[in-house]
Amino acid sequence: MRSSAQFQPAQPRHATMPYREVTIPADDARAEALSDALMELDALSVSVEDREAGTEAEQALFGEPGLPAPRSAWQHSLVHALFSTEAQADAALLALLGTGLLNDLAGVQQTDVPEQDWVRLTQSQFQPVCIEGRLWIVPSWHSAPENAPLVIQLDPGLAFGTGTHPTTQLCLGWLVQQSPWNGRDLLDYGCGSGILAIAAGLLKARSVSAVDIDPDAVRASQANAQANGVELAHCCHVDMLPEQRFDVVLANILAAPLKLLAPMLSARVKPAGRLVLSGILDRQAEELIQVYAPYANLHVHAEQDGWVCLAGTTYARP
Ligand SMILES: C[S@@+](CC[C@H](N)C(=O)[O-])C[C@H]1O[C@@H](n2cnc3c(N)ncnc32)[C@H](O)[C@@H]1O
């Protein structure tokens, strides 16, 4: 399977001709600039893969959720660009020759790529997810099982949180296990798609608020909550959240920001309220527990694929 550092989706095309793929070897210093140049030259999509993939020299290149990969390409990369026609592929290579991005055509390959149902291919990667046998996350091109007790309808979009990532599933699992949430006010801090806030709403929370630093995430959360019939008390940029404490605060961010946010996040929880943190790698758990020790008695609630979810109760403060 090709592991892409960067993938820009193909635009829809109605002809049944094959696409033309150009493959150019590049070092990590050039791969990103080359990808950008190929997009400028009308490539339908560009992806980058490790030239050593499948060999002993293959390198892992991934970032934690919400963060970009530590580097944009591998030391020895292959840049693949897809064009509508062979003529467009030839023209792009010609335009690149002598620009410093491509000195000659040594190692450059061209192949035909058969027409596929790209929409179906993309959709097949997002299947319904079931949490604790009760809560289903279902993309719009699937139907929920007939007897599914709770359903969130959610399509992949600009914001993180389709329900497929372990860090999200860990939080959802906690929410379902501890439900119902009648009489409790919940805050989803770093809401992404709003998936946790929506789940809390469906699990009968008295009120649910959702905040993020990313305006796209705020917009996505508003739209997704509305589509699922969940009313959000607040859905806004973090800086706009009114002074208020919550019975439960969930934050699926990452270990580094969670450390910095410890005093502020803890202060958002009522005394003896619940704090749930996710986006933490197994090896980071102990440090996070210590950082939050002045405010809450966090413990590892659950683990999935090397990620942990910390949960605990905040201390009563004077
Ligand atoms: C891993 S996603 C989690 C999304 C969703 N809550 C879920 O569980 O799938 C992390 C989200 O936190 C947001 N974020 C990152 N740093 C933040 C910060 N300091 N304050 C608020 N939100 C932050 C990101 O923009 C992103 O939408």
From TrEMBL:
Enzyme Commission designation: 2.1.1.-
Principal location: cytoplasm
Show the SUPFAM superfamilies listed in the entry: S-adenosyl-L-methionine-dependent methyltransferases
EC supergroup of this enzyme: transferase
Database matches in CDD domains: AdoMet_MTases
Q: Which GO terms describe its cellular component?
A: cytosol
Q: Where does S-adenosyl-L-methionine bind?
A: 168, 190, 212, 252
GO molecular function: any one? protein-lysine N-methyltransferase activity
Q: Which keywords label this protein?
A: Cytoplasm, Methyltransferase, S-adenosyl-L-methionine, Transferase
Q: Can you state which reaction this protein catalyses? A: L-lysyl-[protein] + 3 S-adenosyl-L-methionine = N(6),N(6),N(6)-trimethyl-L-lysyl-[protein] + 3 S-adenosyl-L-homocysteine + 3 H(+)
Signal peptide (UniProt feature, chain positions): none
**Single biological process term from Gene Ontology:** methylation
User: Where in or outside the cell is it found?
Assistant: Cytoplasm
In which family does this protein belong, per the annotation?
Answer: Belongs to the methyltransferase superfamily. PrmA family.
Q: What does this protein do?
A: Methylates ribosomal protein L11.
PANTHER family registered for this protein in UniProt: ELECTRON TRANSFER FLAVOPROTEIN BETA SUBUNIT LYSINE METHYLTRANSFERASE
Task: Please give the name of this protein.
Answer: Ribosomal protein L11 methyltransferase
Taxon lineage? Bacteria, Pseudomonadati, Pseudomonadota, Betaproteobacteria, Burkholderiales
